[in-house]
Amino acid sequence: MTTSHRTALITGANKGIGKETARGLAALGITVLIGARDAERGEAAAEELRADGADVRFVTLDVTDETSVRAAAEHIDATFDRLDILVNNAAIAAGPRKPSETPAATVRQVYETNVFGVIAVTHAMLPLLRRSAAARIVNMSSELGSLTHLADPGSPWSAHSSILLPYCTSKSALNAITALYADELRAEGILVNAVSPGYCATDLNRHTGIRTPEEGAAVAVALATAGEDGPTGAFLAEDGPIPW
Ligand SMILES: NC(=O)c1ccc[n+]([C@@H]2O[C@H](COP(=O)([O-])OP(=O)(O)OC[C@H]3O[C@@H](n4cnc5c(N)ncnc54)[C@H](OP(=O)(O)O)[C@@H]3O)[C@@H](O)[C@H]2O)c1
Question: What angle separates helix 16-27 from helix 39-50, to the nearest 10 degrees?
Answer without folding.
Answer: 40
